[in-house]
Specification:
Distance between the termini: 34 Å
CATH class: Alpha Beta
CATH architecture: 2-Layer Sandwich
Strand content: 25-35%
Oligomer: single chain
CATH superfamily: STAS domain
Helix content: 25-40%
Shape: globular
Number of domains: 1
Number of strands: 7
Order of helices and strands: EEEEHEHEHE
Radius of gyration: 16 Å
Structural class: alpha/beta
CATH topology: Transcription Regulator spoIIAA
Length: 134
């Protein structure tokens, strides 16, 4: 098993080496940050899994802890979410709660929403729209 390679910010990761040494493509995760009516909105497009969620986690830490924004929303309508990636939202919700930041998830699949609520985060996370995963 090869060691993980940390890349400088802004550099694309082209793939992981397979058993044959050839790089396998990784679907890219796009994060776009904007502002709307006093809320910082992070739009996620692509697969959100254990390896790709590190970029989102770093961004949310900066927006909540570093910049001290009063409201941070994550738009997940165009994302596909693996269950292990929910840890990023658990951590962000706890950080937001400590800083009295409003933390909003838009387009969170119903199963993911239920998993967050089962962890007692119903007051720390505001879900504005859920959809059922087929």
């Amino acid at each position: 098993m090869s060691a993980a390679k940390k890349l400088p910010a802004g550099e694309d990761w082209q793939g992981l080496p397979g058993d044959d040494g050839e790089a396998r493509p990784i679907p890219s995760l796009s994060l776009v940050v904007g502002r709307a009516l006093g809320t910082v909105v992070v739009t996620v497009d692509g697969p959100l899994n254990l390896s790709s969620c590190q970029r989102l986690e770093s961004l949310l830490i900066d927006l909540i802890d570093g910049q001290g924004n009063l409201a941070v929303a994550v738009d997940l309508v165009r994302a596909s979410i693996e269950p292990e990636a929910l840890l990023v939202f658990l951590d962000a919700a706890q950080r937001a709660n400590l800083h009295r930041t409003r933390f909003i998830l838009k387009g969170l699949p119903l199963t993911s929403h239920e998993a967050l609520l089962s962890r007692g985060l119903s007051e720390a996370v505001e879900v504005t729209h859920s959809h059922v995963v087929p």
